[in-house]
Design a protein that fits this description.
Blueprint: H1 2-24, E1 31-36, E2 53-59, E3 64-70, E4 77-83, E5 89-91, H2 93-96, E6 105-107, E7 113-126, E8 140-143, E9 149-151, E10 156-157, E11 161-168, E12 180-188, E13 192-193, E14 201-202, E15 206-214, E16 223-234, E17 243-248, E18 260-265, E19 277-281, E20 284-286, E21 296-301, E22 305-306, H3 315-320, E23 326-335, E24 348-357, H4 367-409
Antiparallel strand pairs: 1-2, 2-3, 3-4, 4-7, 5-6, 7-8, 7-16, 9-11, 10-11, 11-12, 12-15, 13-14, 15-24, 16-23, 17-18, 18-19, 19-24, 20-21, 21-23, 22-23
């Protein structure tokens, strides 16, 4: 009885939490527009794939988020800048296309907050003992600055969704050979979910970033891959690096079998209504193009460390180079787990994360989960109450019958 009452109490708490999330949820809608190489018509480099900066302006009711996505200098990069309304992006293309692109990217007014993520290296190692842990081995590395990129013509440019796809040119490095490294980015005008598993939750203040490793070269039958990441953000706080947080969820409706979420959070700061920034993902990657649940593998993160150097060739350097109040962190992400047959099995890995400003979106309990719990715990509880009422009524009528019989006997 006590256990059943406790379970029913937990259900009511879960239902109350769901209702609070639903009522308190305040969705900010933004109007999106996408441009390729803005104001770069006079430069021949901008008419080819040698220079590709995609600029998405996300206009909200109180501010503007400026998204710059690029592989300039070979470095896959995503920059998010928050400004007041009517602030404009400025790109000095002469400086940006020179050997020293310092201060080439700026805005007509000082931004409220800035956050960037970039990929600096592709790593390969032989997992001889099938541990799925890259720290056990020596890695070969490929610097992205030596990679040639093109962008796909599959570009989405709507007021509520903008997305682009970068992919490496064949034979641009020994690692790639006839394979491709694909870098996908998307922005959203309101709350939604990704179309591809793990179907991450999005809002109007974040971007989805996807990477796909397709048919890359392997050294042995036990080769695995990893990627080195870097994040740069405004902060005058004493805390020097991003901090990791892992949370659990009861519901695996959108990511079957995965009940946890990993976040990398910046230190809080007194800047604007969004200010803090984050990276968020599910610790799962898929090893086939259909993202089949049975064909998935683990995603592991390794020590987040402070650094002080941004790749000079990237648009991130062109924007942050002169900023004295930034923090720079770097870390590795590896793909693989014991028994997954290594990268050679499918020669394909896809992984998605979100980067954004403000508080990371949280998955609230779905109505399907609420109903399941209600049926699971509610039915026995209702049966118990009905049984108690029945027994009470039965005892009452039995007493009445006994009383009548005793009177008749007298």
């Amino acid at each position: 009885m006590a256990n059943l009452c406790y379970a029913w109490k937990k259900f009511l708490i879960l239902l109350f939490t769901y209702l609070v999330f639903s009522i308190a949820k305040c969705e900010v809608k933004r109007n999106l527009s996408l441009l390729l190489n803005p104001d770069c018509d006079e430069y021949p480099e901008c008419k080819s794939s040698k220079v590709s900066i995609f600029y998405t302006e996300a206009v909200g009711p109180n501010d503007v988020l400026h998204y710059l996505w690029s592989t300039h200098g070979g470095i896959p990069s995503a920059l998010i800048v928050q400004t007041n309304l009517s602030v404009q992006l400025k790109i000095n293309w002469t400086v940006l296309l020179s050997d020293y692109p310092k201060n080439a990217i700026s805005f007509t007014e000082k931004p409220l907050y800035s956050f960037a993520m970039l990929l600096t290296k592709l790593l390969r190692y032989d997992d001889a003992d099938d541990t799925g842990n890259m720290t056990d081995y020596v890695c070969e590395s490929m610097d992205f600055s030596g990679v040639n990129w093109t962008f796909s013509d599959k570009i989405t440019n709507n007021s509520d969704l903008c997305s682009i796809i970068f992919e490496t040119s064949e034979n641009s490095t020994e690692f790639l050979e006839k394979g491709k490294f694909i870098f996908q980015l998307s922005a959203f005008g309101d709350d939604s979910r990704g179309e591809r598993p793990p179907r991450l939750l999005h809002n109007s203040a974040n971007n989805e970033v996807g990477i796909i490793l397709s048919n890359l070269k392997i050294n042995s039958t036990k080769s695995r891959y990893a990627v080195e990441y870097m994040a740069i953000y405004n902060s005058e706080e004493k805390e020097p690096t991003l901090h990791k947080k892992e949370s659990s969820n009861l519901d695996d409706e959108f990511t079957p079998g995965v009940f946890s979420t990993i976040k990398l959070l910046t230190a809080s700061s007194n800047c604007s209504n969004l200010c803090a920034s984050y990276l968020l993902w599910k610790p799962v990657a898929y090893t086939d193009k259909d993202s089949t649940v049975s064909l998935s593998t683990d995603v592991k993160i390794y020590n987040v460390m402070k650094t002080d150097q941004i790749p000079l060739e990237s648009i991130i350097s062109a924007y942050f180079e002169n900023n004295k109040t930034i923090q720079i962190s770097t870390w590795n992400i590896s793909f693989g787990m014991t028994g997954d047959k290594f990268y050679k099995d499918k020669k394909y890995t896809s992984w998605y994360l979100t980067i954004g400003l403000g508080v990371p979106p949280e998955d609230s309990p779905t109505i399907a989960l609420i109903l399941t719990i209600a049926i699971g715990f509610g039915t026995p509880f209702v049966c118990m109450i009905a049984g108690s009422i029945y027994m009470g009524i039965r005892k009452f009528f039995k007493k009445e019958d006994d009383l009548l019989l005793s009177r008749e006997s007298m």
